[in-house]
Design a protein that fits this description.
The protein has 824 residues and is α/β, with parallel strands linked by helices. The chain folds into 3 domains: 106 residues, no CATH class; 377 residues, 3-Layer(aba) Sandwich (Rossmann fold); 310 residues, Glycogen Phosphorylase B (Rossmann fold, 3-Layer(aba) Sandwich). Helix content is 50%, strand content 15%. The structure holds ligand 26W.
Length: 824
């Protein structure tokens, strides 16, 4: 029967959070939005129905968030520009933020459905490679939870990170069709579109006021269409937006004026337009000078800046105060072209004079550096740049000319300094140095861990550090305790809350320390162990169902999950496993902590050595599995397709976290933090954020090994000879010899030759030099694990003392040190 107040009724169907109200809403959405009869609905139909039901309950906060931005003209908002946002599955996180998990679970169970099953079926938008993309997502969560107005700007890749399968021990890449079923969390906003140019040429003319002007006539124009994903803060009171741009052809072709041949060409150009947002480049820490990639970067950055200028207008503010409205953060150099594009928009399009435009630009941008690896630093060949962005190259030259004039005035006669600081690299082929552009165009630059920032100042940005002391700052990375503890580890979370209350979810950095008090409480330790054990059972179950792997939860779970890279040294870990295997075979009666060594992570499709490492892990795993002599004591497995969802099951199940990169190479790491706050102890080097984690938890609660950054430099300086180590460390020599002999490749001596040869001749990442120290340390960790009570105590202390690594703390620091934004 129709009610008296149908508007009210309609609102309630979409806002009611009672179990009964939710049940009804899910059924409504199932029928009216997804178009399925209840009897015929499959799990993903139920998923869509639940997702729309949850989205409905976010919309009023979402719209209020936009209103708030428009109403408060004095507010500075963060625009976080990132080529990657690895936001992970949305349903569970949004239910948690809105605090409606239990009523939704109940509503579904009334309908004969399981929330957990539905959550496990949710496809995840893999719009990022690894750490940098996930960090962006953690920061969006913290910004919303702290009530800081923010917009994330990125690309809506049609194909995100590839799905990894393992066939015959090797990685196989499958394309990720995450949009095959509609993504229920996004709202496409046809009214928010911007036109982005590419290519073409420039010309100068004198305008009506007698000023010299430059006109860019792009060869192509592409439309950027906004797709908005809500980012709801914890508690459901604040909502920001992640705005992802999809490329579309401009539909202004006048087909009638074309003859047949040109018609075909016009359509082809439309197809090209759409390739811009087609696919994420799956390279992590390895830069490739691909024209399309520069096109992608410019596409999303230009659309985002035009969008901000539009917002500035809607707010009724003049462009002269643009920097007061927006603090733009460049997530690495991928969006650094924004510096030149904002200059072009202000000077060419809005007719501002250069000096004023430059003052605004350099008060708007800040830049985060995420890597020191030379092969990851973006630099574009000048010719390629001129082809894709001719006007921007001119602007960069002009920025460079003025910048170098200033340097020359301050340091006369130092040509070497000029050469090093120039935005253009000129020794050999000429390149545009994007880190230089980002640094010159920003008011602050930051590294992502204390050690990393020090090395930045000493190394990649040394001259800038001298030129503008104070510009380079540190903000150590953090992760969101909502997704990475509350959501992914309900067992441990419940236990924590039972002792210290719920405050840790929003004030992790202050509250979690209160757990210390319970570290030696036998009752609490028992419950802690049970929670961890249940997580191990959950992982074993997932691995069995999805990958056909057998894991024994009674063994120690010793885990290394992250992108596969030589500097992260998964092969050091494999060498350790081989050495352990040899020990067990030699002395079957030995005292040995039974363990499962778990690996996971994707290799860039073109990274030969990384793929060899995956193959080696699987080959060693097979050999060990086939040997009854070690059954039940040692196992090594590779968990396929490591992504956010799998991470949410893997981190909570880990006993030991492997953070073993060569000192000085890992900018920060964030997996180290996720493991840590889920109660794993760390075995690691003095690298990235490990250094600060160790300071927080105390040396006695951390398994430290390996050369320091300084020692690494000294060893290299002295002429490193890896062979010395293979000859003097018997277990190491033996393991390498076995790999080379074909012991793990069915007698094939060629399969792993490149790996072994590389380690014996170059070993750029000092795997062999660190082996002995690593072995000794891992032995200590294994013995420590055997003393369960003490291990549990250390595990509790680790969690209690890692409050610093909350992304809320990191965002507060950005607000204070970088953005000049007040936060409550
Ligand atoms: C241009 C190709 C390319 C693509 C991605 C080069 C470099 C990248 C990123 C910088 C790779 C990345 O994710 N870096 C990681 O960033 C994390 C967040 O700060 C850090 O925790 C990791 O140490 C760093 O490797």
């Amino acid at each position: 029967m129709a009610s008296a107040n149908s508007v009210q009724d309609c609102l309630e169907t979409r806002t009611d959070v009672s179990r009964e109200g939710l049940r009804q809403a899910i059924l409504d959405n199932l029928f009216y939005v997804t178009g399925h009869a209840r009897e015929m609905a499959e799990v993903h139909d139920w998923y869509a129905a639940v997702a729309y039901t949850v989205r409905d309950r976010m919309l009023s906060t979402w719209v209020k968030g936009l209103e708030k931005l428009a109403a408060n003209r004095n507010m500075r908002a963060v625009a976080y520009l990132s080529a990657e946002f690895l936001i992970g599955p949305q349903l569970g996180a949004n239910l948690l933020a809105l605090n409606i998990t239990e009523p939704v679970r109940g509503a579904l169970s009334d309908l004969g459905q399981s929330l957990d099953e539905i959550i496990m079926k949710e496809p995840e938008p893999g719009l990022g490679n690894g750490g940098l993309g996930r960090l962006a997502a953690c920061y969006l969560d913290s910004l919303a939870s702290l009530g800081v107005p923010a917009i994330g700007y990125g690309i809506r890749y049609e194909f995100g990170m590839f799905t990894q399968e393992i066939r015959g021990g090797a990685q196989v890449e499958l394309s990720d069709k995450w949009l095959r079923q509609k993504f229920p969390w996004e709202l496409a906003h046809a009214e928010h579109t911007h036109v982005v140019g590419l290519g073409g040429s420039t010309s100068t003319h004198v305008d009506e006021k007698g000023r010299l002007r430059v006109r860019w006539k792009p060869g192509k124009k592409i439309m950027a269409c906004a797709h908005d994903v809500p980012v709801i803060g914890h508690g459901g009171r604040e909502c920001n937006v992640l705005r992802l741009w999809r490329a579309e052809a401009v539909d202004t072709f006048d087909f009638e004026s074309f003859n047949a041949g040109e018609y075909f060409k016009a359509v082809q150009e439309k197809i090209f337009s759409e390739t811009i947002s087609k696919v994420l480049y799956p390279n992590d820490d390895r830069y490739q000078g691909k024209q399309l990639r520069l096109g992608q970067q410019f596409f999303f950055v230009s659309a985002s800046l035009q969008d901000m200028i539009h917002i500035q207008k809607v707010l009724g503010k003049p462009l002269a105060t643009f920097h007061e409205t927006f603090a733009i953060q460049l997530n690495d150099t991928h969006p650094a072209i924004g510096v030149a594009e904002l200059m072009r928009l202000l000077v060419d399009e809005h007719l501002m004079d250069w000096d004023q435009a430059w003052a605004i630009t350099t008060r708007t941008f800040s830049y985060t550096n995420h890597t020191l690896l030379p092969e990851a630093l973006e630099k574009w060949p000048v010719e390629l740049f001129a082809e894709v962005l001719p006007r921007h190259l001119e602007i960069i030259y002009e920025i460079n000319r003025r910048f170098l004039d200033e340097v020359r005035a301050a340091h006369p006669g130092d040509d070497d300094l000029l050469r090093r600081l120039s935005l253009i690299e000129e020794t050999g082929p000429r390149y545009v140095r994007m880190a230089h552009l980002a640094t010159v165009g920003s008011q602050a630059v930051n590294g992502v861990a204390e050690l990393h920032t020090e090395l930045l100042k000493r190394d990649v940005l040394r001259d800038f550090a001298v030129l503008t002391p104070g510009k380079i700052r540190n903000v150590t990375n953090g992760v969101t305790p909502r997704r990475w503890l509350a959501l992914c580890n309900p067992g441990l979370s419940g236990l924590i809350t039972s002792r210290i209350g719920e405050g840790w979810q929003t004030r992790f950095e202050d509250e979690i320390i209160r757990l210390e008090e319970f570290a030696s409480d036998p009752q609490f330790q028992k419950l802690w162990r049970e929670a961890k054990h249940a997580n191990k059972v959950r992982l074993a179950e997932l691995a069995r169902v999805h990958a056909g792997l057998t894991l024994d939860p009674e063994t120690m779970f010793d885990v290394q999950v992250k992108r596969i890279h030589e500097y992260k040294r998964q092969h050091l870990n494999v060498l350790r496993v081989i050495a352990l295997y040899n020990r067990l075979r030699r002395d079957p009666g030995m005292d040995f902590t039974p363990r499962t060594v778990i690996f996971g992570g994707k290799a860039a499709p073109g990274y030969y050595m990384a793929k060899k490492i995956i193959k080696l892990i699987n080959s060693v795993g097979q050999t060990i599995d086939a040997d009854p002599a070690v059954a039940g004591r040692l196992k090594i497995i590779f968990a396929p397709n490591f992504n956010v969802r799998n991470g949410q099951v893997i981190y909570p199940a880990a006993d030991l976290s492997q953070q073993i990169s060569t000192a000085g190479k890992e900018a920060s790491g964030t997996g180290n933090m996720k493991f840590g706050i889920n109660g794993a102890l760390t075995i690691g080097t003095l690298d990235g954020a490990n250094v600060e984690m160790l300071e927080c938890v105390g040396r006695e609660n951390f398994f430290l090994f390996g050369l320091t950054t300084e020692e690494v430099a000294q060893v290299k300086q002295a002429g490193y000879d890896p062979r010395r180590f293979s000859e003097s460390v018997p277990e190491l020599g033996e393991a390498l010899e076995q790999i080379a002999s074909g012991m793990f490749s069915g007698g094939d001596r060629e399969e792993f030759r490149p790996l072994v040869d590389n380690l014996l001749s170059r070993d750029d990442y000092l795997v062999l030099a660190d082996f002995e120290s690593y072995m000794e340390c891992a032995d200590r960790a294994a013995s420590a694990y055997a003393d369960r009570d003490n291990w549990t105590r250390m595990s509790i202390l680790n969690v209690a003392r890692l409050g610093k690594f909350s992304s809320d703390r990191a965002i507060r620091e950005y607000c204070g040190k970088i953005w000049n934004i007040r936060v409550g």
